[in-house]
Amino acid sequence: MMTEPDHILELRRQLSRFVLEKAPREKRRAWDQAHSFPRDLFAELAGMGLCGLTVPEEHGGSGVDIHAAVAAIEELCRAGSFLAGPFIQCAFYGGMNILENGSPEQKAQLLPRLARGELFFAYGLSEPDVGGDLSAVTTRARREGDEIIIDGAKRWCTGADFSDYIYCLVRSDPEAPARQGLSFVLIPTKAPGVTITPIDHVNLRYTLSSDVHFDSVRLPASAIVGGPEKWNRGWGMLAGRALDIEKLEISAVAFGLAQAAMEEAWDYAQQRVQFGKPVSGHQAVRHALVDARTRLEACRLMLYNAARLASAGQPCAVETSMAKLFIAETGVEIALACQKVMGAYAMSADYDIERNVRDLLSMPIVGGSSNMQRNNLAALWRLAG
């Protein structure tokens, strides 16, 4: 059994009680139907200091603790994505990216507010014709005096509808080789020329996903992530430590949802009686649940090994890619096995399994697909070919 420091055990205890008391099943069902998250409950979590787990003390946080932040995602996912999603968009999309890549001025301006849970970031990475190959983005940014002007479109910008900024990858030098002509820009979602159009979707329904169009959006050069000196240096930001942390947070979501699915099926099987005994007494069901729980424990060990390395600042590109690949794929297997255990009731909105299956089916796709992780690992392990 994995051991954890006392402060993480206490964090788990607090968040488990919070979810149990304030995010019951009927509320989760309502949030899912409305594509929304409970802002009042998120404000309570922020008041507990949760968003400061990715912000140094000198900027108002509690000190960067990746292990604790990953554990927080796991615990919040017992209520689905409705609390974990906004936490990630504040503490990870915002806090981690600005900490790793922001200019001193951006850190001073944004990190204290992120630590207090006052800001949300959405990613502007994919485009209508660009998915895995982000070096091919076509959203254009050009310099004009002390301003930058952005034109183009992004797709699958989850949370753009409630976020304050789009953390946007742009092509800043169309003449340069693909990876040498990219920059990141912080685009306020309410800036003139920004249009947000929702996309209906079936997974992670704590919010909408969106198309975001930029029509001659003018921003000061200070909006360049890292400051003007980081113009055309975006690829290093995309492929650096922040990417490892991104793989960790989505792996934690997959693990937390799979754990919730397993626990619900485990309890159901002991309460549902068929042929004169609980269905957990039938060998086929027992084996399915034991296999699911065993796979879940393997996921746990892989996730927190990667989180431990990231927390210590050690290289972890291999471990985070393995975690994302294995947990996403195994999470789907766990969810489908648990769905079968629960039978027809697994198709009902009266149980969480219906939503958890929807969410877990997307895990091998979002946050860097499984095949992208396989390619990453083959390259990191220097597999010939």
Quickly count the helices. 12
Q: Give the helix level as a range of percent.
A: 40-55%
Note the gap between the termini.
Answer: 39 Å
Percent strand equals: 5-15%
Low-confidence stretches: none
What is the gyration radius calculated from CA atoms? 21 Å
Number of strands: 9
Quickly give the structural class.
alpha+beta
Morphology: globular
Nearest-integer average pLDDT:
96
Layout of strands and helices, then pairs:
Blueprint: H1 6-22, H2 25-34, H3 39-47, H4 66-76, H5 81-101, H6 104-115, E1 121-124, E2 140-144, E3 147-154, E4 165-171, E5 182-188, E6 194-199, E7 209-220, H7 234-238, H8 241-271, E8 273-274, E9 277-278, H9 283-311, H10 317-342, H11 353-361, H12 370-380
Parallel strand pairs: 1-4
Antiparallel strand pairs: 2-3, 3-7, 4-5, 6-7, 8-9
Please tell me about this protein's structure.
The chain is of the alpha+beta class and 385 residues long. It has helices at residues 6-22, 25-34, 39-47, 66-76, 81-101, 104-115, 234-238, 241-271, 283-311, 317-342, 353-361, 370-380, and strands spanning 121-124, 140-144, 147-154, 165-171, 182-188, 194-199, 209-220, 273-274, 277-278.
Short structural description:
The protein is α+β, with helices and mostly antiparallel strands and 385 residues long. The protein is built from twelve helices and nine strands.
Notable characteristics:
single chain, 50% helix, 4-stranded antiparallel sheet, alpha+beta, 385 residues, 3-stranded mixed sheet, globular
